[in-house]
């Protein structure tokens, strides 16, 4: 199908077209990439701006339950919700988080919800591009809130935060000494920390953990793009649907303030520049993984290791071969 | 001069030729780079293998005094010593560590010593390549020990450890709670930790600091390329020339063991492969800093930020321009 026509169908709210469009942006084929670029260009006509919410949490913190309960709450408010995932492990395992829609049984049956698992068999760079473009597709399709889920592994949090207007860190109740388990860099990109499972036996531990993180957040340098009181930590229970309305209110307060002060648009502009630079790097370095260069590099690496050729000379040969096609 | 002839003069021990050769590898000009590659190829004829010792320490730990005293001790043992530096800050400040040879007054007057400051006005990638090639030049010129100094900032320790057979971390006496100031990654690449200034009022503090680091080193996973008892921490006083002979004996023990077990050569082979990969990356990404691409990218970045073009589309245009020359 003509990519411009596909874009129009996406904008018109056709779910099958949206799914097809995401499949197109996932493809690594050169002709598909050309079509994807035309498709993405044509989305501008929609002029829609969704709220993009990144959500990170290690396995076991109750991410699926949170998305299910939070998503259903948003839908009851009359909003349309899309759920995407960045799963850095899926390229290795072939599996994917969100692969099993039964993890979000109610949400997956909602006509106003759209759930798409993380693509498998892609490198993180590929997952990042596909998810970023899928976010734009869902936005153009009229979804109001786009949840972008990731497990807290390696660089995936950075990837997700760079495509989110708001970044949530979901944590489980724990002893205070486990605070160190969350890397400082992650604390710095979090806009809100939600300590989940604040119910039953874990309620007291959740409150303690929340207080610990609230303290840790106060130690972080005040950020110019936050109103007073942010970033903040709070407890929720996704299982019992407690605290999610409050969390949503606080998210809206934060985002309204950022919109009013120009930080919302500024962040998106910065993110676009970031992805532009990343796409160039990704495209350049990607050349090294393709034949015949890949074999040439492997062969030269052996000669470099054995001392038959200097690293500079071998690199010079590779770059010359690249330049001369 | 013909680069092959220059190489021969370097191998013959001509100091002026060595200095000229280093100037040549520092140059970013394309024709100089071609000559540098021929020069580096021609060094193989020397068949010399020096001991490359990386040395990291923050300002104030007494690095210059250590190099001065340690270097003079090596020279008394009949060895020839070269001192190079990787200074990531020099590209910004225009200044350079080792810029003032009076910092090593005795050593700089020794005929068996060669001291070369860090080049200024180069990016870390450029400093890395130049220093790596300068190390090979000094090695071919017959220097037995090559000390590669760096301040402990950012990535410079990784750069230096990737061109060293042995990596020393020089520390000052401190309270035990400052142990956290040394990043875990640095602890993991250190072969020996030397706590300097173990003299006068600071002697007791130096012993405490040394014990703290010895304890920390024991927590690091045993490395297959180390004999029993390594990595190790010890105290020295560069000012009073105390402990340096012992440190040198321990360095030799470590290196002899690594040579005997194949780890010395294996490490150099791995390093060569690392630099090969780095040179390719450096060369590829370096294209983006050159005109007319640089201006094209800057202009597109503005359009990307304002939303006039998608990041993928803009990157596609850059990569196409690059491919089509």
UniProtKB/TrEMBL annotation, chains A, B:
The keyword Ribosomal protein does not apply. The keyword Kinase applies. GO terms for cellular component: cytoplasm. SUPFAM superfamilies: P-loop containing nucleoside triphosphate hydrolases (SSF52540). Gene3D superfamilies: 1.10.287.130, 1.20.5.170, P-loop containing nucleotide triphosphate hydrolases (3.40.50.300). Pfam families: MeaB. InterPro entries: GTPase_ArgK (IPR005129), P-loop_NTPase (IPR027417). Keywords: Kinase, Transferase. It comes from the Bacteria. GO terms for molecular function: GTP binding; GTPase activity; kinase activity. Belongs to the SIMIBI class G3E GTPase family. ArgK/MeaB subfamily. NCBIfam families: lao, PRK09435.1. This is Putative periplasmic protein kinase ArgK and related GTPase of G3E family.
């Amino acid at each position: 199908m003509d990519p411009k026509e596909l874009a129009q169908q996406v904008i018109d709210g056709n779910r099958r077209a949206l799914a097809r469009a995401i499949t197109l942006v996932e493809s690594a084929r050169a002709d598909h990439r050309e079509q994807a670029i035309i498709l993405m260009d044509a989305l501008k006509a929609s002029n829609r701006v969704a709220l993009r919410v990144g959500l990170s949490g290690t396995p076991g913190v109750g991410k699926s339950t949170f998305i299910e309960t939070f998503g259903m709450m948003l839908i009851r408010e009359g909003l349309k919700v899309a759920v995407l995932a960045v799963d850095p492990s899926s390229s290795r395992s072939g599996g994917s988080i969100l692969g099993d829609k039964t993890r979000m049984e109610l949400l997956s049956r909602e006509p106003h919800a759209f759930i798409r698992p993380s693509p498998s068999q892609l490198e993180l760079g590929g997952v990042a591009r596909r998810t970023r473009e899928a976010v734009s597709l869902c936005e153009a399709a009229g979804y109001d809130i786009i949840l972008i889920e990731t497990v807290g592994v390696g660089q995936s949090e950075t990837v997700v935060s760079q495509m989110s207007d708001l970044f949530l860190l979901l944590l489980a109740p724990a002893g205070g000494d486990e605070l160190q388990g969350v890397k400082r860099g992650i604390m710095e990109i979090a806009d809100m920390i939600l300590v989940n499972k604040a119910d039953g036996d874990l309620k007291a531990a959740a409150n303690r953990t929340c207080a610990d993180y609230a303290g840790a957040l106060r130690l972080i340098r005040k950020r110019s793009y936050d109103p007073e009181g942010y970033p903040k930590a709070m407890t929720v229970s996704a299982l019992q649907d407690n605290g999610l309305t409050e969390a949503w209110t606080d998210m809206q307060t934060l985002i309204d303030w950022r919109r009013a002060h120009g930080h919302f648009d500024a962040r998106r502009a910065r993110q676009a520049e970031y992805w532009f630079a990343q796409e160039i790097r990704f495209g350049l370095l990607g050349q090294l993984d393709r034949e015949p260069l890949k074999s040439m590099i492997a062969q030269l690496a052996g000669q470099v290791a054995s001392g038959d050729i200097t690293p500079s000379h071998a690199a010079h040969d590779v770059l010359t071969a690249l330049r001369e096609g």
